[in-house]
Specification:
Blueprint (H helix, E strand, L loop, with lengths): L2 H10 L2 H10 L4 H33 L3 H30 L10 H8 L2
């Protein structure tokens, strides 16, 4: 499999496929970079979504409509960011580019070069 296809596949199922490629890929720094970036980026976004869901559930349980609206709107924003990043990162990996997501890219590069 070519490195650009493997790089794209690192993002297909978010952090899950990132883990798969971290385990399987031994040589390509390019693929390892995208695998680690996928784990870091989509892992963090998943945690944020879980926190917002819990916040929304607490808001419903306490009948706090304002808090629920806040959590709901933030959840939608995070979802849109997640989908946009997912598409962009897959396309850039397929094009052979190593674009760094702020906050995750530098860390991913360090891990890939180990």
């Amino acid at each position: 499999m070519s490195a650009n296809v493997a790089g794209l596949l690192c993002y297909v199922a978010g952090w899950i496929t990132g883990i798969v490629f971290v385990v399987l890929e031994k040589k390509s720094t390019f693929v390892k970079f995208h695998a680690w970036q996928s784990i870091m980026t989509f892992g963090a976004l998943t945690v944020i979504q879980i926190i917002l869901s819990i916040l929304g559930a607490i808001a419903v349980a306490t009948l706090s409509f304002g808090l629920w609206q806040f959590a709901h709107v933030l959840g939608i924003i995070v979802w849109v960011i997640t989908v946009a990043l997912w598409i962009v990162l897959m396309l850039l990996a397929y094009q052979g580019k190593m674009w760094k997501v702020p906050g995750a890219g530098n860390w991913a590069e360090k891990q890939a070069n180990k």
